Amino acid sequence: MKLRYGGDYNPEQWPEKVWDDDHRLFGAARIDTLTVGVFTWGLTQPAEDTYDFTILDRIVERAAAEGRQICLATGTGAHPAWLARKHPEVTRVDFEGRRHRYGQRHNSCPSSPVFRRLSAEMARRLAARYAGHPAVVAWHVGNEYGGACYCEHCAAAFRIWLRDRYGSLERLNKAWYTTFWSHTFGDWDEIEPPSALTEHWRGPDHTAFQGITLDYLRFMSEAMLTNFRDEKAAIRESDPDTPVTTNFMGVYRPIDYHRWAADLDFASWDNYPPGDDLPEWMAFWHDLIRGIKGGAPFWLMEQTPSTTACRDVNPLKRPGVMRLWSWQAVAHGADAVLFFQMRAGKGASEKYHGAVIGHAGRDDTRVFREVAELGAELEQAGDAILGARTPARVAVLFDWDSWWALEISDGPSRLVRYHQVVLDYYRALWTAGVGVDVLPVTADLSGYEVVVAPVLHMVKGDLAARLAEVARRGGTVLTTFLSGRVDEDDNAFLADVPGPLGELLGIRVDEWDARPAEVINPVRFGDDTTAGGSLVFEIVIPQGAETVATYTHDFYAGSPAVTRNRFGEGEAWYVATRLDQPGVDRVVGQVLDRHGLRGPFPPVPGVEVAERVAPDGRRFTFLLNHGSEPAELVARADATDLLTGDRVTRGSTIRLAPKDVLLLQ
Predict the structure, then answer these.
(1) Where among 334, 351, 381 does a domain terminate?
(2) Burial of 36: CB neighbours in 10 Å, binned 0-12, 13-18, 19+
(3) N or C: where does the chain have the smaller number of CB atoms within 10 Å of the terminal CB?
(4) Binding residue per annotation — 310?
């Protein structure tokens, strides 16, 4: 066994004579795992009462004959044309109230009884046919779940969901604060999905009633989870053991991935960063996906070997970058490195999307050479890393409810973007070389010395008590502006801000000022150095906390902008404005220094350090140079580079070329 290597393969798009070249080239590149059938519903079910697995049988048998393993998809990420024509209610109604006709993908209403029945039946028949096949090592349900629907089926399902959540209209009216604007509901059927036709103006983020909009976001995420559960249950009728997954999309706002954790056998995701020089973004996404299943290894289900085709501008991965980003995924917990796509399609919207094999089918392109070279390295590493975990003593909390509630709020500022603030603090940890687990707010925090919870807008359940316990036993909690504002119903706490976090933080927030992005209020630390503060400026009144930094401008000049409160054996920090990155780095650095948690190497610009630990205790250190200049580090121990076999001795100089990777055991 080794780390799985391969990706999405669509041979149904090609004559079978092309398959010969494909498998020859797969062998040359050490490709061992193929994801097949992702969009084959129309092929395998050409009519409602007709199923035809002839082509899929040949695809599966050919891959098996070549010694390759298969991640078999249910194909239900896009429904066939006959289904929309015969049952038009399966198509979605959009935010503006328009029912869509057949086209595109992500085109099915998740609440449609017809869609649910037929998609589950497709999964059931596939499992009955291929369960127990020695080449099938995983099931891939749907594809990149997302979007929303506002049809009558969804309205009816939403009302049922609300009954289950609240139990009574009295409880619902209280949660949604419906005495405002004469919105009290006297019958469940009076409730409409929040859309451009009801509570919204200027788009999905501008709503008159945050409660109903927040609940619809929760409902739609769980409606798609129900689709996943339908298909997984159908698979389990014939195949009780083969793991089942679906491919997530990193920090994707419409779907709360944490609510899916219990239903996934392993997590997987598709890595398409918004730019070509954002290694900390990808590290954050990897850690988020790994955290979904409590730190267990995940699959990198898709990445491009060269370029994407879905954006206005699609940069090409420079030489060495595909290898670098692939090993970065492994460094953060991936046990599979897969691509989209194996061979470039010749038509439709993804014909210019990068592929391992281009339209000409050549094996002498730079991209193919790099893929083959990476395949050889993965083979060289063997099974050493498989199943290894990522050790972390720092947790970053990420909460979809806080994200949703903050960004649909009519105050204090619509310029604050939740995931960007979280990334500011993650970036500081990443730069310091610290191992991080990105976790839901429901996670067990007992194993962490530092818990960072930026913009913890919504505080639910016993979270405040569990954060207090981190500090009480000697740990450090760090949170920021706009935290501790609302409960799980998105209603303000009837207490001083930051609500249930006030005692832990030792402060109260008296007022808050929101300004345009260009307004900077410098924040002065005790040594007279400054950092920039922006967007939101909370006016903090210490209630036992000490002041670490103060505002320098406006009528609140001299008041605290950063505080630290002694609590039990530990500390709790509060940052009352959006600091610039140097300011965040400084605050995070002070927290890390208290616990001696700097990384194993002094920070080198552009160099990422990550670790995985095998069940038998073997430790693997990944050194990745994302920079454009060579880098040098001093070895901390004797080690072997698993990619080259070279020995490294303690105290020697390790040299990393630009975009280079070392894997030290």
Answers:
(1) 381
(2) buried
(3) N
(4) no
